[in-house]
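SEQUENCE WITH STRUCTURE:
===
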Amino acid sequence: FLDAIHFKVRKDHRIVNKAAYSVIGINTHGYKDVLGIWIGENESASFWIGVCNDLQNRGVEDIFIACKDGLTGFSEAIQAVFPQTSIQLCVIHQIRNSMKYVNYKDQKAMMFDLKQVYQASTMEEAELALHLVKETWGRKYPIVIRSWENNWLELSTYFCYPREIRRLIYTTNIVEAYHRQLRKITKTKTAYPTDDALRKIIYLATVDITKKWTIPVRDWAQCISQFAILFHDRLSIDLAM
């Protein structure tokens, strides 16, 4: 799960916005862990190549599914380093971004129509619902429809999986919840003097936050059983752990 949280940092006698890009993983026993945090001003394919190589060099052997917001260049980078990884674009982020371009009086109706897309039972039902959304709203909101069509390959990945896994991967809620906890700890600081100062406070906060991650994620027994079938040639589990 990947997402960014933004902070203000001093640089060359001025205050700039910098993103801390967080990567949270779930291991084969269902436990979350923060795999790393990278601080930067701009994201790009070369930036994400560095992140993916760093993860691999530090022991991440394989990634089945990567769930992200619209992070520029990430898809190309992860395919270069972990070519078997499926990518799921966060549906909730897509909806939020869509509503920015929809008149307030139309938002409720369009949200209802989009709900038929992302809550569909099958890929075929979802594609039919998206076609109906296009017929209803395409002329009035072409930017919104174009975005859904352009992103559909990564938006629809979760339809390949059963309900328990879908619930886990269709949003980046896991990393967003972590960021909300970070924000509680860092909210009193208006700006950080250096990247290292920011990195240190995030690290110390993360140590406290992750102490509470003592149980597997919801429905993990069902999820891992499905993963064992779907990724039987890539998944090995040490039952003694």
